[in-house]
Design goal:
single chain; alpha/beta; six-stranded parallel sheet; 16 helices; binds nicotinamide-adenine-dinucleotide; binds uridine-5'-diphosphate-glucuronic acid
Length: 422
């Protein structure tokens, strides 16, 4: 059992803290957001993640998990300090290390001799050196341990990761970090810091590229009269391609893909390699937002000016309450710019958002709407009463941005149905 500090209690920090305490380590987690801290101390999760509250309560009850408001307090006496703070995109597309550096400054003076600082936040290649420089401690090692969890499956992915990547110039420190996770069955990749940091960006960029690719195939399918649903089934059986991340949609978003693809582009630029493939990945995604807007405009009879659009789904994907960089919200912005009025519903969003009217249920969103746009793949949308939807709407047009609904059933009810790539 080791003493572990976790700095930052967002998706990554909480999953890390909950997993390590579940594995028997003693974890002190620091969070500066007072609202989050109050919830956490009561064993309540500030984020929607299956199984997280159970693990938080287990840790609090066993006394293996504590929450504090100060990174330095968490780091006192810790053998390992995991940096799990945000690394948002700065104006030039590069990752902003302000929070990482601030956290390192806080913990640096109190860490014990022989402690290890573990960077879990997604940070540009070379950040291990930056952390080491800011830390300014010869007797403390720095290890990179990128995180690959998906929101909505954070606990599952932490307990059953696809792989554990550890990068350090200090082999002994890398092996000690690996030892923390020894009960977890997963391939272990021990490498140098630059490779570990590159693995993280290359993985996210590759996944984003896959989604951009399938969205481009969807556009092609529409042009040639193919059904993208069948195309991806046929592609996915080839294990070299794989069936995952081949779902066409309204474009990719979330707190990581948009910033990480741009950060990787910038990392390559700084290193003198012109990674222009990533420009196409970003451009295709941006075009996808417009493609969905065009479909909605067409569904509204050719103009959005004065049209009412019912929007189902505001989060960047289903099974999360996270709206950061949500394609749905970007599409809503573009609809509003073209004169549309939006009535939105999302199972996890209650407050008005960016001036969008958010209503309490899916039928209410449809009241008087000319078009219905489905932008997040919440399963509950599939089981709604579409007779009631038709009654509530002024028009009979559906744009299914996630290919979630039964197109034939909707057409039988008199709806004009537009999906993606079919
Ligand atoms: P987040 O914004 O949800 O959480 C970060 C938390 O750290 C916030 O609650 C913030 O208040 C807190 N914090 C910041 N500075 C602090 C300090 N000095 N002391 C104590 N608390 C502090 O972020 P996240 O989504 O968990 O992402 C964190 C990092 O992990 C990012 O680099 C991200 O790219 C990466 N990542 C995220 C995911 C994901 O699914 N969200 C997956 C893999 C990697
Ligand atoms: C993503 C990665 O999947 C994680 O491995 C990584 O750890 C994380 O980013 C991160 O670094 O933060 P996440 O942001 O939770 O995880 O979201 P994904 O499930 O990857 O989805 C990203 C976007 O792509 C969403 O908007 C989603 O709707 C879209 N998507 C995904 C599709 O449109 N089609 C697909 O087939 C898959």
């Amino acid at each position: 059992m080791s003493k572990v500090a976790v700095i930052g209690c967002g998706y990554v920090g909480l999953a890390t803290a909950a997993t390590l305490s579940h594995l028997g380590h003693h974890v002190v987690a620091a969070e500066v957001n007072p609202d989050r801290l109050v919830l956490l101390r009561e064993g309540r999760s500030p984020i929607l993640e299956d199984g997280l509250e159970d693990l938080l309560r287990e840790g609090l009850a066993k006394g293996t998990l504590e929450f504090v408001d100060d990174a330095a307090i968490a780091a006192e006496g810790a053998e390992f300090a995991f940096l799990c703070v945000q690394t948002p995109m700065s104006d030039d597309g590069r990752a902003d290390l302000t929070w990482v550096e601030a956290a390192v400054r806080e913990i640096g003076p109190v860490l014990e001799r022989g402690a290890i600082v573990v960077t879990k936040s997604t940070v540009p290649v070379g950040s291990s050196r930056v952390v080491g420089r800011v830390l300014h401690r010869e007797d403390v090692s720095v290890v990179s341990n990128p995180e690959f969890l998906q929101e909505g499956a954070a606990v599952h992915d932490s307990l059953h990761p696809s792989r554990i990547v550890i990068g350090s110039d200090d082999q002994a420190a890398a092996i000690r970090v690996a030892g923390l996770f020894e009960e977890i069955q997963a391939p272990l990749v021990i490498t140098d810091p630059a490779s570990a940091e590159t693995i993280k960006y290359a993985s996210n960029s590759f996944l984003a590229m896959k989604v951009s690719f399938v969205n481009a195939v969807a556009a092609l399918s529409e042009a040639v009269g193919a059904d993208v649903a069948d195309v991806v089934v046929g592609m996915g059986y080839d294990h070299r391609i794989g069936a995952e991340f081949l779902k066409p949609g309204p474009g990719w978003g979330g707190s990581c893909f948009p910033k990480d693809v741009r950060a990787m582009r910038a990392i390559a630029d700084d290193a003198g390699y012109d990674f222009h493939l990533l420009d196409a990945v970003i451009a295709v995604n941006d075009e996808q937002f417009d493609r969905v807007v065009d479909k909605i405009e067409q569904g509204a009879g050719g103009t959005l000016d004065g049209a009412t659009v019912a929007v189902w789904g505001l989060t960047f994907k289903a099974r999360t309450a996270d709206v950061r960089e949500s394609p749905s919200i970007e599409i809503v912005r573009r609809l509003v710019a073209k004169g549309a009025t939006i009535r939105a519903y999302d199972p996890t969003v209650i407050a008005p958002l960016d001036g969008i009217t958010v209503v309490g249920d899916a039928y209410e969103a449809c009241a008087g709407a000319d078009v219905l746009a489905v932008l997040t793949e919440w399963d509950e949308f599939r089981w709604l009463d579409f007779d009631r939807v038709a009654e509530a709407m002024a028009g009979r047009s559906v744009v299914d941005g996630r290919n979630l609904l039964e197109s034939a059933a909707l057409r039988r009810l008199g709806f004009e149905y537009q999906g993606i790539g079919r």
